[in-house]
Design a protein that fits this description.
- The chain is built from nine helices and seven strands, in the order αααβααβααββαββαβ.
- It is 37% helix and 18% strand.
- It has a five-stranded parallel beta sheet with strand order 1-7-6-2-3, with helices on both faces. A two-stranded antiparallel sheet has the order 4-5.
- The protein has 231 residues and is α/β, with parallel strands linked by helices.
- Helix 5 runs parallel beside helix 7.
- The longest helix has 18 residues.
């Protein structure tokens, strides 16, 4: 009886693709196959000197850097990010993280990571939102790479205002020394993967690298689900 009821509910209220709003079929989840195949992929992982990596030039600890999607105004990546960042669709973030991780692992990217660190929110912002979207992207990665996700090793100690309307210079000033490393010893010689949802100027991730760099012989890689621009 319950199967019949579920079939009836699915018929009356089908799950819709987040992007095109067409009903999902078969094994489709969150996105239909057409939208999934036409995502604005950067393919940065095929170019070790990609634009995302160039944003963090000068850090000797840096290993591998990539972003999965181009983030443009009114584009697919913006709709997806806004869905999980502002409208509570946190499982979408986990799903997208998993999809990206599967592709990157098959390509041999991040092969030696020991630990995953999602960019932390300040406790006030996380309490207001109810969750940290980067945690869920990291969970998707963890499911594929089998690495622990650590939320306590880096702490956000300064509650900054939104960076949306700030200049590049002001963004970097706004995030200076906003993170604190809570445990240096456990990171000795480790290869950590920083995960964030969007890279715009790289200011926030740079501040996180500055905190992590205090751990001796640490190696750092970076993943963002999206990056501003489409070039």
């Amino acid at each position: 009886m319950s199967n019949i009821l579920n079939d009836l509910l699915n018929l009356l209220y089908p799950d819709l693709c987040i992007l095109c709003r067409k009903p999902l079929i078969d094994d489709e989840k969150y996105l239909c196959l057409d939208c999934l195949c036409n995502m604005p992929n950067t393919n940065f992982h095929t170019n070790r000197g990609n634009p995302a990596r160039a944003l963090f030039a000068g850090y000797p600890q840096l290993k591998e850097v990539t972003s999965y999607l181009f983030f443009e105004k009114e584009g697919p990546a913006q709709k997806l990010v806004h869905s999980f960042k502002y409208y509570g669709n946190r499982r979408l973030a986990e799903y997208l993280g998993k999809i990206a991780a599967i592709e990157l692992k098959e390509y041999g990217f991040y092969a030696s990571i020991d630990l995953i660190i999602p960019i932390p929110l300040h406790r006030k912002k996380e309490r207001k939102r109810g969750y940290n979207q980067s945690d869920f992207i990291a969970r998707g990665f963890s499911a594929v790479y089998g690495c622990e996700v650590s939320k306590g090793l880096v702490e956000r100690i300064v509650h900054t205002k939104t960076q949306t309307r700030k200049s590049i210079y002001d963004r970097h000033v706004n995030v200076e020394e906003i993170f604190r490393l809570t445990d240096t010893e456990s990171l000795y010689g480790k290869h950590v993967l920083i995960i964030d949802d969007v890279i715009t100027t790289g200011a926030t991730i740079s501040a996180c690298i500055d905190a992590l760099a205090k751990a001796p012989e640490i190696k750092i890689s970076i993943f963002s689900l999206s990056i501003a621009g489409g070039t």
